[in-house]
Design goal:
Shape: elongated
Oligomer: single chain
Radius of gyration: 21 Å
CATH architecture of the largest domain: 3-Layer(aba) Sandwich
Number of strands: 9
Helix content: 25-40%
Bound molecules: S-adenosylmethionine
Structural class: alpha/beta
Number of domains: 2
Strand content: 15-25%
Distance between the termini: 65 Å
CATH superfamily of the largest domain: Vaccinia Virus protein VP39
Largest sheet: 7 strands, mixed
Order of helices and strands: HEHEHEHEEHEHHEEEHHHH
């Protein structure tokens, strides 16, 4: 059963001459049953505005609309895609708004009404940067309730990694401190046109109302950045760049000064952040 009365994506791409550009991270999903399945990973969309970054020819956009999204705001940098997106706007009157803009420099919040979910097959070149921005706003909870995002599999593994895992690092801590994060789908390269070199995965993150452990966000982020900047070094040495006496701070919260960042849980990083904040003058 087709998901909508619009033409197949291959036809759309041919008609609008949308040859994929590597510089824009364009790997398109052309199977609308697959894009609907990805849209379903975002949960019930019927009462939500959905922000989609990089709709391209509109495969995931159509999935989100067919799955009942109240409204979709689609931000696309490539002007070549606009005509194809206008056809989707016409098929779903009043439910799709397209912005021809760079997602890194546009303020989307003024175009959206809560509750808001974000869903995207992100361009690989700006995907991590966008995720970090969504995870580190000034205020928490953020403007969005959940993120359903396609990444290269290795980035997805870094988001859900646990202490001791080789993928565990800054991204895992930023993501899991204030969100529940899990991988909900894995996709082989052949699912995309053109096929990328690597496998991909969809990560679903739900924003928690409160962080799992108390800590000042700025202090935690600077500790984690310094600790993982030199991840092979012992913490007593890697934290020298930001703490006057790292050994004393680590000992005060029960972390062996010889430990490495990749062994330390989010709970312990938060304890360290609280201690550092409380001893700052
Ligand atoms: N959503 C489509 C799909 O699943 O088939 C396309 C996904 S493709 C991986 C990434 C899309 O992001 C492309 O359409 C590309 O033009 C767009 N894009 C790349 N950089 C962007 C940016 N800075 N802001 C907005 N869109 C961008």
């Amino acid at each position: 059963m087709p998901i909508d009365p619009l033409p197949p994506l291959r036809e759309v791409i041919d008609r609008h001459d949308l040859r994929a550009k590597k510089s824009l991270g364009q790997n398109f999903l052309l199977d609308l049953n697959l894009t609907s399945k990805i849209a379903r990973q975002a949960g019930d969309l019927t009462d939500c505005d959905v922000l989609e970054i990089g709709p391209g020819p509109g495969g995931l956009t159509r999935g989100l609309l067919a799955e009942g999204a109240r409204r979709v705001l689609a931000v696309e940098k490539d002007p070549r895609c606009l005509a194809a997106l206008q056809e989707i706007e016409a098929a779903y009157p009043g439910r799709l708004t397209t912005l021809n803009a760079d997602a890194l420099s546009v303020d989307v919040t003024k175009h959206l009404t809560a509750p808001i979910k974000i869903a995207a097959n992100l361009p690989y070149n700006v995907g991590t940067e966008l995720l970090v921005r969504w995870l580190t706003p000034k205020e928490w909870p953020p403007f969005w309730d959940s993120l359903t995002l396609m990444f290269q599999k290795e980035v997805a593994q870094r988001i859900v990694a646990q202490p001791g895992d080789k993928h565990y690092g800054r991204l895992a801590i930023l993501a899991q401190w204030r969100c529940d994060a899990k991988i909900v789908m894995s996709l082989p390269p052949e699912a995309f046109t053109p096929a990328p070199k690597v496998h991909s995965a969809v990560v679903h993150l739900t924003a928690l109302q409160k962080p799992k452990f108390e800590a000042d966000a700025k202090t935690l982020q600077s500790l984690v950045a310094a600790a993982f900047n030199q991840r092979r070094k012992m913490l007593r040495s890697s934290l020298k760049s930001i703490l006057p006496d790292p050994e004393a701070a680590l000992t005060a919260v029960g972390i062996p000064p010889t430990a490495r960042a990749e062994e330390i849980s989010i709970e312990l990083f938060c304890a360290l952040a609280r201690h550092v904040k409380s001893t700052q003058v």
